[in-house]
Structure formats: C-alpha cells, structure tokens
Amino acid sequence: MEIDEGKFQSLTEKVQRARQEIAKVIVGQDDVVSKLLISLFAGGHCLMMGVPGLAKTLMVKALSEVLDLSFKRIQFTPDLMPGDITGSEVIEDQPDGTKKFTFIRGPLFANLVLADEINRTPPKTQAALLEAMQEHRVTVGNKTYALEEPFFVLATQNPIEQEGTYPLPEAQQDRFMFFLWVNYPEVDEEMEIYRRTTGNLQARLEPVLSGQDLLEIHRIVREIPISEPLQRFVTQMVRCTRVDRGKEGDKVVPDFIRKYLQWGAGPRAGQYLILGAKARAFLLGQSHVAAEDIRAVAQPVLAHRIIVNFTAEAEGVTALHLIQKILETVRD
Description:
The chain has helices spanning about 5-20, 30-40, 55-65, 80-85, 125-135, 170-175, 185-195, 210-225, 230-240, 255-260, 265-285, 290-300, 310-315, 320-330, and strands spanning about 45-50, 70-75, 85-95, 100-105, 110-115, 135-140, 145, 150-155, 180, 260-265, 305-310. By secondary structure, the protein is of the alpha/beta class. The chain folds into two domains: about 5-215, P-loop containing nucleotide triphosphate hydrolases (Rossmann fold, 3-Layer(aba) Sandwich); about 225-330, Helicase, Ruva Protein, domain 3.
C-alpha cells in the first residue's frame, strides 16, 4: 500500500508545529522529547529513568496538551492496589429502591498516563498496569473494559533511592518500547529554566494534533517501507546480543558479547527497532527508513533488553557500552 503523500505532508507539518509548542515549556531535552514522540507515533510505551525535578511530568503533560489528549498521573506507592488504577465496581442505590453495581473508572482511562515511580508499588499492581499496556483493556471482576485509543504509558523510575522498591523483572521491562535516561540540563539551558519558572510569564500551549491524527500517524508509520538489507541489519544486530545463537549457520558471536553479556534481546527488540526507525523517519519527514534511523533508536530499544554479567559489572562495562560496540561491529 502506497503512502498518501498529501496526508503524510500535512501530518508532518503538524508534528513540527507540535514540537515548537512543546519547546515553549520544555527547555532542552530535545533528544528525550524526540524519543517520546517516536514511541508515541509507533504505538509503544516508555520507561524513563531520571532524578526528580527534570521535567518528566511536564513533558508528558505538555504532550497531552499539544496533542489534545486526556492526561492522568498515577503516583505509585507501596500501598497502591490494582483497583486503584483500573477502577472498581461499587454498589449504588437506584430510584426504585434496588441496588446496582456501577463501574467507576480508574486513572488508566486516559490517553496519556504517567506512572510515576513504578518500582515503588508491589508486583500485583505493576502487573495490572502492564496488562493494560499490552492489551489496551482492563479486567475488573468478570468484566473487561476497553481503554480509549490512543493509549500511551510513560513509567518513571528514581535511580537514587532503591530501598523498599520492587524492581521490574526483565520480562515486564520488555513490554516497554524505549528506555530513556533524562540527564541534567546544560548551563545555558538551566539558566533559561530559572528565568522562565521564577517570573510571571506562563506559556499557553495550543493543541495541534488530535487523537484521530495520532491514530492516522500510527497507520502511516507502519506503511513506511524498509528494505530487505535493512531488515537483515536489524536481525543481525538483535542476534548479535545472544550468547546462544540457536541454529548453526549464524555468524560467530563477538568475543565481547561472550565475555560480558548474560542474556540477549528477544524478537520484540527487532520489532521495536523497525517500528522506531519508521517512526523516526516520519518525524523527520522522510517516507522511507535509512540505516541512521535504526542506529538512532538502537540504544533506547536495547538498553533494558540486554543483561550484563558479573564480569561486566566488575569491570564497569554497561549495557550502553556494549550497544555502542554492537553498532560498530554489525554493519548495514
């Protein structure tokens, strides 16, 4: 199916205006904002790591306003139960004197959901969120309720305080398309943040894209073509992370993978590499995927999907170091 060039051009222009609107309230963090948009356009979810005060909540709220989507924030705590986020059924008195069960929707019923400090809540509640992310629906009692589309979850983790937390297992982390690290701003950016936030000026964001536009973007992103050599490049990159490569005939695993990696990435990594590359191409106004698009999304896709071993930890080798070496080893 060929891409509708008129629709493609119209939506990419709206996306550029949306980025300009977001820049009214978010200083710097261009790469993080771009990755959030890429994930949103590909229909994926993000797991974000960063210390408090780096505008993670503000980014998602700004996205919801510019994209004209509903937004809810859930502060995850150790006493949060699944019903607190999915909603629950309550008994209500009817005018005729009878009683009836009524479903009260929880905060998951929004287009953009910020799951703040997801690792602070028990696995049972984490699982309820992750089920909603995967199925786009929630089950309460014996009834299933569909979530409104589009549906996007940004979950955050605090890298400082790890006491009393419930880290996400690798299988649950794999449900997130991207893992993003939010760094401190540069000097000029930090000064601009102070200037904007300590005065009386309040920026007002104008909605640019509708929920229907976003669903149309999802469709267009999947229609963007990717060549067979680039698909093979993605396949080799993902398989390069596996110490156990399966059937004979694959290229030899690099020595640094055997030395430092405990577990490699599964097929979902390849799916997200391709979808992320397509969404990045759309974000840049390109109607085809280039090798650079794949390389640009490799780090956020693979960072939480490859597990280093004790040798790597002892020598200070991180997953990010290995991803860079993989990009240098596997050629398109």
